[in-house]
Design brief:
This protein is of the alpha/beta class. The protein is built from 7 helices and 12 strands. Helices cover 20% and strands 22% of the residues. The relative contact order is 0.21.
Length: 281
């Protein structure tokens, strides 16, 4: 809790005064960024749906530590892979909605994905009390926010339900609203991975999360110095009952402009139905 309060105060009241003057994390991001890849066949995924290629980004944290040119380079290279859908799992700003202003043009290519670019709120998106401004700014470049909402997405000859739930810590998550319009989502955007067991209880096939930064500072062979998941869902893929989750370490940095042992990443996810999943030879 103390660490969270320090993060809030620095992100909200200190870093904005240095915006544009100090970008110490950008060189680390360029050197250490990687693209992880995983292929999944969630048991509850719609049968006979064509393989779905998802680009998962999280925790970009535009603002004090990041240079727009660096984000532009990374987004451009990722979109050359031609994902079907882009999922951005929260914390797109560091301390306030205005952090986004110099980065919107760099984020715009994400909306070129055929099935769209989608966003859910994270805790940092609430630090200045104006998440609605973030929604509007993202909409201006074609990125749609889902906050306790869902949509039906057509894919090939089939369809799936995509949902997004509000932030676990500072938002107002409402499962009834998430489920009301289109039934149970097959794919859920949830910034905080500790939503996972609630999602599994509601038979959601696949949840995509961030928030943890993989610990951000993680000495070799040890747990994270600061753990952000009560259930130790620090990074990677997990399964429970018939549900699955993928947790990204994310792109950005908060608190300190460094990462160690938990390098920045995006994740390329290929989702197959169990009927169409590839088999080992």
């Amino acid at each position: 809790m103390f660490e969270r309060e320090i993060d809030f105060v620095a992100s909200r009241y200190v870093y904005p005064h240095l915006l544009g003057l100090w970008n110490p994390y950008s060189s680390i991001l360029v050197k250490r960024f990687s693209l992880a890849q995983i292929s999944l066949a969630p048991p509850l995924w719609p049968q006979q749906l064509p393989a779905l290629k998802i680009l998962l980004l999280s925790d970009i944290h535009t603002g004090i530590f990041l240079k727009p040119a660096v984000l532009c380079l990374i987004v451009g290279s990722l979109m050359e892979l031609e994902p079907d859908l882009v999922a951005v799992a929260g914390d797109i700003v560091t301390g306030q909605s205005s952090d986004l202003d110099d980065f919107l043009g760099m984020l715009a290519p994400l909306s070129c994905a055929p099935l769209g670019a989608w966003y859910c709120f994270g805790n940092h998106d609430y630090f200045d009390g104006n998440p609605g401004a973030i929604r509007k700014k993202l909409e201006s470049v074609g990125i749609v926010t889902l906050a306790n909402e869902s949509v039906v997405v057509e894919h090939g000859a089939g369809q799936f339900v995509l949902g997004g739930i509000d932030d676990f810590i500072l938002g107002s998550p409402d499962w009834e609203r998430v489920l009301a319009a289109n039934g149970t989502p097959h794919l859920l955007l949830a910034h905080h991975p500790d939503f996972f067991y609630q999602a599994a209880a509601r038979k959601i096939a696949l949840t995509l999360s961030g928030h943890t930064h993989g610990g951000q500072i993680r000495p070799r062979w040890t747990p994270p110095l600061v753990r952000h998941s009560e259930f130790c869902l620090d990074e990677g893929a997990y399964a429970h009952q018939s549900s699955m989750i993928v947790v990204s370490r994310g792109l950005g940095s908060v608190g300190l402009p460094i990462r160690y042992g938990a390098d920045p990443e995006a994740i390329w996810i290929e989702v197959h139905s169990t009927a169409g999943a590839p088999h080992d030879p």
